[in-house]
Amino acid sequence: MTMTTEELDGELVRFQTRFREVKDEIQKALVGYDELVTNILVAMFARGHVLLEGVPGLGKTFLVQTLGRVTGLQPGRVQCTPDLMPADILGTHIVNENEEGRRILHFEKGPVFANLVLVDEVNRATPKTQAALLEVMQEGSVTAGGETMRLPAPFFVMATQNPMEMEGTYPLPEAQADRFLFKLRVPFPDRETLVEISKRTSGFDVPELKNVLGGDELAEFQRVVAQVPVADHVTDFAARLVLATHPETEGCGDKVERYVSYGASPRGLQALIRGGRVIAALEGRTAVSTDDVRRLALPALRHRVILNFQGEAESQDVDAMVGELLETLPTAAHA
User: Fold this and answer.
1) Domains of the chain as residue ranges with CATH
2) What is the pLDDT of residue 202?
3) Residue 319 clears pLDDT 90, i.e. is over it
4) The model's pTM
5) For 49-85, b where at least 16 C-beta lie within 10 A, e where not — what string?
6) DSSP state, residue 190
7) Looking at the predicted structure, is the pLDDT value of residue 196 above 50?
8) Neighbours of 9 (CB within 10 A)
9) E strand or H helix at 52, and its extent?
10) DSSP-derived secondary structure letter, 47
């Protein structure tokens, strides 16, 4: 049901309050990562999956576990290893005996049948196993033995991965990476943050976290932010930004033309608009601006711009390319 402007304003005030409560509760257990936590929550309210990249030991897994405790979402976990099989993620058919002693085929559900699924070190699984998540992430369902089973709603995949140069990792297939709304980099903490981490974690006390937001309320706020309007000129700017990541587009820039194999997909545009709605709602605005699109350009596009052989060989930085596009791309289209 479409809300009036007054109704939307009221719901956005309530959304801002609840967002702050969730974030504050998460940060009782975490040190730093203010922008990272904000972006993860933006993705959740935009109904999107998140890929977290960082070296081991930065608390990526703990962050996702904390998010589950605060939101009260049913957790599921997949620890990826090279010998992990698709059935270990999705589930498998097994033979059981019923009360009459007859053998029946029963589907034993895998860990993806949850609300918040942590896929830990996703790039340590083989491409065959990674591909098991394609239907799960796009359609929220699992098909096995000719039967399609819906996953619980709301449903999110939060995956962690180590940088690709680390030993024992497999690159995510492009189709798999494209299903993540955002790819977020987990930065290494500075000296002050490291000291605070030591103070908080060197003892045995675990912070008491309360359930701040349930699944029903989360789904309700997802519907609210989806009603934040987007003007045509904002959508046009986002579309031109996505097109500018393609080497065959006129005016894409020298680096894109030289180093990029192919650019962001239409899902990149969807990520910019859906995330932009949440950012606007957080700031109490009932319209998305081009600044919201700029703010989300790196999380939404960095994993969707694929370098060619020369770009890989010269270790070109996709983030820097997207940053240059933002500097040169005019806000308004030329007539």
Assistant:
1) 1-191 (3.40.50.300), 224-329 (1.10.8.80)
2) 62
3) yes
4) 0.88
5) bbbbbbeeebbbbebbbbbbbbbbbebbebebeeebe
6) -
7) yes
8) 12
9) strand 50-53
10) T
